[in-house]
Write a structure and sequence with these properties.
The protein is mostly helical. The protein contains 12 helices and no strands.
């Protein structure tokens, strides 16, 4: 039993991973709902380009995505420079950077699930609400959103699980700082490169597998 008890360092990686994954899911969910509804309901010029851009993290190597985020958000980056100069905000090599990287990597999975959920909502119900005097926002909040809730929850669960396992983009923009940015995958990677680390990592590997199986089960159920 004692061999399966997590060490303080392992607990730190677990709690940091949960915090990063939860934060990534929360900050990306509003964008997922908005873009999912837009892509499911609207036709516009350049829609295929938008869909391609939003799906890029699925096919790009994670380290490339992390590199692009570093270029954008580093202190000399296109966005990071102004965040630093105007607001004193430094994201790189913090747990917030890890959450942002996880959000970007998990977003396509969330978006696809939410888009399908909105596409399956019967538009006749929305039209009926409009004819009864409901505005667009009220129709969305009282008809579309509740009917698509299962797909939205499934997308959020998938994004959370994907964020737990994020490695490549995270290590580029957040580094691998114990107690600061070292999530479960980074901890396992560090241990695997140390003598006897493979055996030491079994507990967290099992934890990751359990989280993934539970998340996929919930997603399929929803």
């Amino acid at each position: 039993m004692g061999d399966w008890q997590l060490t303080p360092e392992e607990w730190s990686a677990v709690w940091l991973s949960l915090k990063v994954a939860l934060t990534a899911t929360i900050i990306s969910l509003p964008f997922g709902i908005g873009l999912g509804y837009l892509l499911a309901r609207r036709q516009f010029w350049g829609k295929s380009l938008v869909e391609t851009f939003l799906s890029l993290p699925l096919v790009l190597p994670p380290v490339v995505t992390g590199y692009l985020l570093l270029v954008l958000l580093g202190r000399r980056g296109w966005i990071g420079f102004y965040l630093d100069e105007w607001f004193g905000i430094h994201l790189v090599f913090t747990w917030k950077a890890a959450a942002l990287a996880s959000a970007v990597m998990a977003f396509p999975l969330m978006l696809r699930s939410i888009r399908v959920a909105f596409a399956e909502v019967d538009q006749r119900l929305e039209m009926a609400a409009r004819t009864l005097g409901a505005g667009r926002l009220e129709t969305f909040a009282r008809i579309s959103l509740p009917l698509a809730r299962r797909g939205i929850l499934a997308g959020a669960v998938l994004a959370f699980a994907r964020s737990i396992g994020e490695f490549g983009a995270t290590v580029m923009i957040a580094g691998n700082l114990p107690g600061e940015t070292q999530t479960i995958p980074l901890y396992i990677y560090t241990q695997a490169n140390a003598p006897g680390g493979i055996e030491q990592s079994v507990r967290l590997v099992v934890a990751c597998v359990i989280i993934a199986v539970v998340a996929l089960g919930i997603s399929e159920f929803l």
